[in-house]
Amino acid sequence: MVKEISLAEVRGLIGTKTGLSDWILVDQAMIDAFAHATNDHQFIHTDPARATTESSFGGTIAHGFLTLSLLSTMNYNALPKIREQTMGINYGFDKVRFMAPVKSGTRIRGHFVLADARFRGASMLMTTYEVSIEIENEKKPALTANWITIIQFDPKDRPEET
């Protein structure tokens, strides 16, 4: 994948796979830290013995929101840097779907397809990525979503639209 592009090149990537992240291990320590940070200590996340005997998952699973939040690190790892970008803003998600559980001890990675890129005002580019998070050795993704971000840049760097 391309590691750096210019602002003028972004719109030419619409419809293409623009990033594939490295694998991330989701282990029990990560799940427990997320449970602590969010005060969500449901046993299917934090009690391996009970989750093995009292759930259909065969052990603990990551919180769906933990999986979703890992898109941030996957983004930095996978998507090309835009030379003129001064700041990136997480604008939100459309159609987030948690498709399959992420079991403790498994690895996940993000797939990014640039679905849309539109200039807004003099110094912003709104991008929409179709994202999915693959679970290693599983057919079904952990999640799918449309992720909307805003790229800010100096107005003098805005390319001419054709």
UniProtKB/TrEMBL annotation:
Coiled-coil ranges per UniProt: none
Entries under PANTHER family matching the protein: MAOC-LIKE DEHYDRATASE DOMAIN-CONTAINING PROTEIN
Source organism (scientific name): Rhizobium gallicum bv. gallicum R602sp
Gene3D superfamilies: Hotdog Thioesterase
Domain MaoC-like: 13-129
Protein name, as recorded: Nodulation protein NodN
InterPro entries noted in UniProt: HotDog_dom_sf, MaoC-like_dom, NodN-like
